[in-house]
Write the C-alpha cells for this entry.
Amino acid sequence: MSTGTNQFTITKTSKPLPKPAPNTALGFGKYFTDHLATSDFADGKWQNHRIIPYSNLSMDPAACVFHYGQALFEGLKAFRQKNGKIVIFRPEFNAARMAFGTQRLCMQAVPKDLFVQTMLELVNVERDWVPSERGSSLYIRPTLVGTEGFLGVRPSERYLFFTLLSPVGSYYSGNSKAVRIWVETEQIRAAPGGLGAVKAAANYASSLAAAAEQKKRGYDQVLWLDAVTKDQIEEVGTMNVFFVFKNEIVTPSLNGSILAGGVRECALTILREWNLPITERKITMSELKDRYARGEFLEMFGTGTAAVITPVGELQYKDHTFKLNTGTETLSNKLYEEICQIQYGEIPDRHQWLMAIDR
Ligand SMILES: Cc1ncc(COP(=O)(O)O)c(C=O)c1O
C-alpha cells in the first residue's frame, strides 16, 4: 500500500513476535510491535523512507542528539473500532506540533505529508497489533533526532525521523482510578522563553527527579508551577489540567511554557459544545486554596493522549490536602466517555478528528 506521495520501502520481519493475548494488562509502553518506520534528512532533503524490522539504531557516538539534545517526540494513538475499522486520532495535529518544536530547537521539520503518511503506512503494516478492547489502543511514538557527528555546538545538518508503536492500555493503573498529584514547589519544569511549549525530550529529563521523588511517597505525578511566582499553575508532567469549580471550569491559558495538548483542545471544544462555562486563564494555587476553603473547588482532571481524561482524587500542596470528587457522576467521567465514544466509533466523528488507515 502507498497512501501518499513518498515512496516507502517495506521490509517485513522474518521473526514476528507473539501478540499479547486479548485481555492482557498492556500497561503503557511495555510491548513493542515488529516494525519501525524511518526516514533520513541528509544533503538538504528527506529521503530513504523505510519500514524495517524493529531493531537497534546505529549512530555516530558524536551524534548531536547525544551531546546537545536535539530531540523531539510526539505521542498519538490508533484505535480499532467495533466494525473493524482502524483510525488514527488527529495525526495532522501532531505533525504541526512537531513542526512547531523544530523551530525552537533549530531542527529540520518533517513535512506534514511525510509525517501523516508515515503514521498511516506503519499502522497499516502493524494493523494486527491494534488491540480491540475498549480502553486499549496502539500508541504511536514519532521521534526526531539530530544525527550528524561533530562536537562544536551548532544545529545538526542530518536528522533521523523514526516511529515506533506500542499496544497500550491506560497510562495510570485503571481508567476510573483517580490519581494523587504532588504540587512541586522547589524544582521547575519550564521557564519563560524556555522549551516548555514544545515536546522536547529535554523537558522530560528535567521532570524526572521530582516525579521519581514523589513516586516514592505514593504520588502518581507532579503538578508544575510557573518558574517566576511559583504560584501560577502550569501542567502535570504528562497532562494538561482542568479545574471544575461550582460556577466555572478553568484550564491554564497557554503562556508559552505549557505544552498545547491535543486532548486539551478536544476537551475545550466539547465543553463549549455542552455550553459549560469554560475559561482559559491564569489560575494560581492561592485561588485553589481560597475556593477549596469556600467549598467551591469540586473536581480536577488531566487531559493527554496517554492519560485520555484522568481524574485527580487528591492534590497535595505544601501542608494543604485537597480531596476532590471522582467517580461516575463527575464531569471528568462524562468527558472521558464522550472522547472514547468518538475514538471507538460509537458516536459520529463530528469534528473530523479521526483518519482511517484504509483510504
Ligand atoms: C508535558 C505534557 N503536557 C501535556 C500533554 C498532553 O498533550 P496531548 O493531549 O497532546 O497528548 C502531554 C502529553 O502527551 C505532556 O507530555
User: Anything to note?
Assistant: Residues 181 and 315 are 5 Å apart (CA to CA). The chain has a mean pLDDT of 96.
